[in-house]
Amino acid sequence: MFCHQCGKELEENSEFCTKCGAKTEKPTGNTAVTMAEMQANQEESNNMSQSTPQPIPIPVPIPQPIPTPQPTPTPQPTPPTPTPTPTPMPQPIPTPQPTPTPMPQPTPQPTPQVNNMNQQPHYNAVGVDLNDKNNQPMTVLGWLGTFLVMLIPLVNIVMVFVWAFGSNGNRSRKTFFQAYLIIFVVMIILSIVFGSAIALLINSVVDSGSYY
Length: 212
Fold this sequence. Notes:
The protein has 212 residues and is mainly alpha-helical. The chain has helices at residues 29-51, 140-150, 155-165, 171-210. Among the domains are: 1-51, no CATH class; 133-210.
């Protein structure tokens, strides 16, 4: 009994093929002939496969890929590194030393002294007693009173000579009116000179006109 699928010989009354697992059928008359033919064909094919020599495959050499030569990079010429030129350092300009300005010496101010009988008089470098009130400068009120007196007619003429030549009185006012009298005398002299010259000029003009 043979399998109708793979042709394996089976035991009698086997329901399934032990090789391919196909279900077997009960052989009938035609089936038995067919199975016998199949078995004969299978044996013949087996004999032919054994008698016919199998061709030995000729090993074909597999062409190895030819390695492409990589181009060797040409080294680029390295430009020479420029040597930095040393920059000359500027010489520091000497700073002129400031000329020390002399500090003004404070002028000693005269200290007012109280006039005392037992106190010695204080004299400065020119021998002027600074304790005397006549040697002290005049105040604003003193000058205002002086100019008001000069506005009085006739009194002003007398007071000019008193203040200029009096033994007592403020020294500043005394020197002022002395200079005032000097200028006054000079002005009188100049007035006389110019007045005489003008009078002579007028007389000469009048005399020259009388001839005509």
